Amino acid sequence: MAERSVVIVGGGLVGSLAACYFAKRGWKVDLYEKRQDVRQPEHSCLVEHRSINLAISERGFSALRRLDPLLEARVRELAIPMHGRMIHALDGKQTSQAYDVFGKHINSVGRNALIRVLLDAADSYSWVTLHFRHELVDVDFDARRATLRNAETGHQLDSSADLIVGADGAYSRVRQRMMTKVMMNYSQTYIEHGYCEFSMAPINDAFAMDPNHLHIWPRGSFMLIALPNPDKSFTCTLFMPWRQFDQIKTGDEAVGFFRANFPDALDLMGEKSMCAEYARNPKGSLVYVKCTPHTYKNCAVILGDAAHAMVPFYGQGMNCGFEDVEKLDEIMLATLQASGSESTETTQLTDEQLLSALDEYSATRAADTDAIVDLALDNYVEMRSSVISYSYLLRKQLEGI
Ligand code: FAD
User: Fold this and answer.
1) Is 293 found in the same domain as 153?
2) How far apart are alpha carbons 82 and 87 in whole angstroms?
3) Where in this chain does the record put each FAD-binding domain (predicted)?
4) Exposed end of the chain (fewer CB within 10 Å): N or C?
């Protein structure tokens, strides 16, 4: 087996999937993650300002399946199907809108549960080493060397590899460093809305609402959504302009706001719990990033949010990051096989072939990821506002039958 190695920066959803893919193709993998290992019981609730659960779609499952159908099956076991949206009107009336006439659907999955499965899968290869509490400090791409700081000891260390993968999220340091090497077109935009999460506990050991829907309370310029969890709770997320968050300062004001806009959800959450969470839970900002290229020579590539952070309204940020990993693998394998090799070990790519694969990846992928970033933005208007008129039209249509 040819010796090829990769350093992956970021052990989030995309970095851990990338570690599995490279390992499957024979690469020696060193993954560096600045946080603790979420699989350790004492760090198991480390979600850090991100959604507790996520919608995983066929795009995400496809990437898991290509890696290992058993892994896909394991994630499907953790996921709760959501066959449509449930629109909650102000008067409490609920309207179901199926996602697809043939039953295609999205699924709710816990972020931490998913990441644990992926880290375990990466760990199962003896040639993968996971380094937690190691933060990337700098990269010298041409020397193919990453410099990291060990948070336990404070010491810096260098890690060298044939390829450096940046899967270090929306504020990627790998991307920042790459910008100094290539003529990268780049934009970063914050939208004027933020978000805050709330929990809706089970009632009498049962889901408080239908678990097989993504629940939406569309209210024009803002909205509440809820996704089901395996413990029969829901995680609700309020998306709203910052100026409105700023106006709600006291518990009474929060209750007044929920009572006026989401009375049915407030009854299910309970005033006390909602108030405590409004005061305690962080309010997150929403940013999107576009950049091109996503690669530097045959030395580096950025994947996932590092290359294309998007607003969450299309539920595709992680799914799209998983697809990045799948596409990169497809292109690397096709490049190898076009050279006449029947091997599936992409470690056998020559330097020139690796360059050609990364060039092709960047040239084809950036247009797709830019498009999905735009679609995600458009879908906010759809979710918080257009669904109301759609449900109205649908009702009218049904009344006419
Ligand atoms: P991240 O998850 O950000 O992981 C990056 C990792 O890199 C982190 O673990 C971080 O600690 C580490 N890191 C960062 N810097 C360094 C460094 N210097 N050194 C070492 N490590 C570093 N997507 C969906 O597909 N479906 C959804 O339903 C969905 N809902 C969402 C809801 C909300 C509210 C939000 C905010 C996002 C949502 N997303 C959703 C998007 C999804 O969360 C992201 O697209 C996904 O997490 C991206 O994964 P990633 O691995 O690229 O980046």
Assistant:
1) yes
2) 13
3) 5-343
4) C
pTM, two decimals, is 0.95
Q: Are residues 232 and 340 in the same domain?
A: no
Cβ of residue 195 lying under 6 Å from some atom of ligand 1: yes
> Is the domain of 121 the same as that of 243?
no
d(CA 340, CA 171): 40
CA of 169 to the centre of ligand 1 (A): 5
Does residue 194 line the site of ligand 1, with CB under 6 A? Answer: no
24 and 131 assigned to the same domain = yes
Judge whether 92 lies within some domain: no
- Angle between helix 251-261 and 271-280 (nearest 10): 120
Are residues 338 and 395 both part of a single domain? no
Determine the Cα–Cα distance for residues 317 and 184; give it in Å rounded to an integer.
21
Ligand 1 pocket member 128 (CB < 6 A): no
Query: For residue range 281-325, what is the model confidence (pLDDT) as tens digits?
Result: 999 999 999 999 999 999 999 999 999 999 999 999 999 999 999
Same domain flag for 249 and 373: no
What is the ipTM, given to two decimal places? 0.99
Average pLDDT of 17-42?
95
